[in-house]
Amino acid sequence: MNIAVTILIGYLLGSFPTGLLIGRVAGIGDVRRYGSGKTGFTNSLRTMGIRWAVLVLLIDAVKGAAPVLIGQFLFEEPWAAALGGFASVIGHTWPVFAGFRGGRGVATAFGAFIAVSLPAAVAVLAIGLIFLAVFRYASVMSIVGVFAGFISIVALVVTNQTAGPYFLFGLLTMVTVELNHLSNIKRLLAGTEPKIGQSDQSHDVAGV
Fold it and tell me: How many domains is the chain partitioned into structurally?
């Protein structure tokens, strides 16, 4: 029962349409009408500016961390924490409160990684930023960063530094985020993915 409750909480928290609501407060209406059509940080930055985008990022990260912490400290159940964190990423991607059209789940996944394992979250951030600095693709930052987080979780589980259920969290979250970036991966392979700073609005370049 605790696991089911945490999954439900995670999905509902993830479904909170942060970018959509903040876009309306910022006066631009539905943020999905612009850029990538997503509700996450990158499209918010493009359409609303840094101040509003950072707010979107922070709230989306909290959405991911909260169900993990509920599972850990309220229910004291690793399976609840692991699956609740993953459910928040699903909720962000397919939000029930926003017509099942959300973001790619990276910020929410990052928040969940922070709650699951700070070292894994540091790996997500550090590796992602390195790839962003070198290649200047927001999508590459997200794709590689979340993969690095998964590898970190695997290492922690294998060395008995974190509970086994978090392996499933890392795997499912990584696969979901990578699948959400399939269109970006296709453009990267074709050489048509715009880099940070390029203004080609015909492409979906959002990484978060």
Answer: 1
